[in-house]
Each structure stands twice: as C-alpha cells, then as structure tokens.
C-alpha cells in the first residue's frame, strides 16, 4: 500500500462515520416522536386510531403506516365569529348587541380527532353553537336583566352559566371538548332603540322617585302625628302638675293669710314692697308721688304702718 493511499484512508472513515450518524438520526426521526406535557397525541395506523402517546419520547412505525396528530391540552380562549357583537332579541322584544367568549379545553383527544381532526374545524363548529345558544338564552331574559342601573336586577352571571351548560351538552360527551367558562365581554344598544330605551329608563326612575316621595310623605305624617300626640300628653301632664303645684301653693298661702288677718297693716306693707321690687329694676331713678301706693311707705311717717294695731280694750 502506497503512502498516498494510507493518507486517504482516515478521510474515508470520517466520511463513512458521519454518514452512519446521519442515517441513524434520520431513522430515529422516522420511527420516534416526542410529546410535550402540554399536548395530547393521537396515533393512527393505516388511517385508523390505534392509541394515544404519552408525554416524552415514543416510538412508532414510519409513515405512512402510522401517523401522529398532536393537540394542545391547555385551556384555550375563543371568541369566534359567533361570539362577536351582533343583534339579539330579548324576551320582551328588545334588540341588544351582545358579544361573548368561551374558554374550552380538549378532554378526549380520540373523540376530538374522530369528529373534527383539526382545531380550526372544531372552532368553526363552536362558533356556530355559540351564536345559536347565545340567542336561545338571551331570548329567555328581559332587557333589564342585561342592562340596568340596579346591579341586583342584572343576571349576567346566570346568563353566562346557562350558555355554558347548553354548549357542554353538545361538546363534552360527543366531541371531547369541555367548556370551562363563558363570559359576556360587551353589551350595547342599537341606535334605533336607544331613544326608546332611555325614555323607558327615565320613566322607571320617575316611578321609583314618586314611590320614595310618597313613602317619605307618609312617614312624615306619621312622625307629625306621633309628635302631636306626645305634645298633647306632655301638655296634659304639665297642666295636671301645675294644678297640683297651685293647689299646694294655695294651701301654703292660706296659712300665711291667716297670719295676715291678724295684722292687716303688715300684709299691706309686704304687698307694697313686692310691687316696688317688680316696678323698680337696677339703676332706676324714679320721681314719684309718695302719696300714692305703694310709694307712700317711703314717707317719714311710714314707720307707723309697721306698728302693730292697738289692742282692743277689754270691757
């Protein structure tokens, strides 16, 4: 073997080794597949479902003997053409613009593949069902259950629940899809019904305000009646108490009257003093005639008024 041939031998071995490695990788690619933890895998053998693949690296017969179809097993949010805003009739014949969305999840990959094979085909069917079920449920509710100034009268949560239940009746058992949630993402009013709706809302507000005013007037009358009754009770009790006090005062006064009868001049003097206290206030200057009562007690001889009456001589 020549020196030149000896130099070419290592290069041929390197080329052969690389070719073998490429062939092995190619063969592994053909006879294996990988499934993520967020995926389902459906295996078909000669066009028929033969099983499902587990997460990780799996082996298979090469195509066209076996084919692998993968589907995302996570929750998907979908609005679709059926969920977009469109006019819907309510139970009380009012048009509203309602848009909804759904959150769904593939729960049975084999059923899903059998009925739809692909996600776009599945979402096309879901879109049609969303439109029909939305119309059915909203047609069972009045307008004020969708749009109202009183949050307690709105039933959006109930409407969303009813749409979800209708969709699940179609999808969960037969198609391998579960509707996790349904939500109303927009509500509007068509222009041709806006004025009538506003007029009705104004009428409802006026009716409520009239009700509150009448209740307030009725309550005010009730409060006034109670106040008048209490007033009469208080006045009656006060008059009765005043009469009792006056009677007691008259009884006390009668004791002093008996004393005054013994000395009428003293009684007259005391009455004049009381009259002067009432007439004269603080810092008062009066120029009066001392001959008229009760100022006659200011004369120099007034002390005679205080003198006791002379005792009658005994015969």
Description:
With 315 residues, the protein is α+β, with helices and mostly antiparallel strands. Among the domains are: 12-72, no CATH class; 76-189, Band 7 domain (Tetrahydropterin Synthase, Chain A, 2-Layer Sandwich), CATH 3.30.479.30; 265-299, no CATH class. It has 8 helices and 9 strands. The chain has helices spanning 3-31, 80-83, 109-115, 119-138, 156-175, 191-262, 264-279, 303-306, and strands spanning 32-35, 39-45, 48-53, 56-59, 66-72, 76-78, 86-89, 95-106, 177-188. The strands form 3 sheets. Strands 6, 7, 8 and 9 form a 4-stranded antiparallel beta sheet that branches. Strands 3-2-5 form a 3-stranded antiparallel beta sheet, covered by helices on one side. The chain has a two-stranded antiparallel sheet with strand order 1-4. Helix 4 packs antiparallel against helix 5 (156-175). The model is unreliable at 309-315 (pLDDT under 50).
């Amino acid at each position: 073997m020549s020196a030149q041939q000896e130099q070419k031998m290592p290069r041929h071995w390197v080329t052969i080794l690389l070719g073998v490695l490429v062939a092995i990788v190619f063969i592994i690619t053909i006879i294996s597949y990988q499934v993520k933890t967020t995926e389902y895998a459906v295996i078909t053998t000669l066009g028929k479902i033969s099983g499902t693949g587990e997460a990780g690296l799996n082996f298979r017969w090469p195509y066209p003997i076996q084919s692998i179809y993968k589907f995302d097993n996570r929750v998907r949010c979908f609005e679709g053409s059926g969920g977009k805003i469109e006019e819907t009739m309510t139970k009380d014949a009012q048009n509203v613009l309602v848009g909804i969305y759904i959150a769904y999840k593939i729960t049975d990959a084999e059923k899903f593949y059998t009925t739809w094979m692909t996600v776009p085909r599945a979402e096309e069917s879901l879109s049609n069902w969303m439109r029909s079920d939305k119309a059915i449920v909203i047609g069972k509710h009045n307008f004020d259950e969708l749009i109202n100034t009183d949050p307690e009268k709105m039933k959006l949560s109930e409407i969303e629940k009813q749409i979800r239940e209708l969709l699940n009746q179609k999808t969960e058992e037969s198609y391998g899809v579960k509707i996790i949630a349904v939500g109303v993402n927009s509500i509007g009013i068509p222009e041709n019904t806006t004025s009538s709706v506003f007029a009705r809302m104004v009428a409802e507000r006026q009716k409520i305000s009239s009700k509150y005013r009448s209740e307030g007037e009725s309550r005010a009358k009730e409060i006034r009646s109670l106040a008048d009754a209490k007033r009469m009770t208080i006045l009656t009790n006060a008059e009765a108490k005043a009469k009792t006090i006056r009677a007691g005062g008259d009884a006390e006064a009668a004791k002093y009257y008996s004393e005054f009868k013994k000395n009428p001049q003293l009684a007259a003097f005391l009455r004049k003093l009381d009259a002067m206290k009432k007439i004269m206030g603080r810092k008062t200057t009066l120029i009066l005639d001392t001959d008229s009562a009760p100022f006659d007690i200011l004369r120099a001889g007034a002390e005679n008024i205080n003198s006791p009456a002379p005792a009658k001589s005994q015969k």
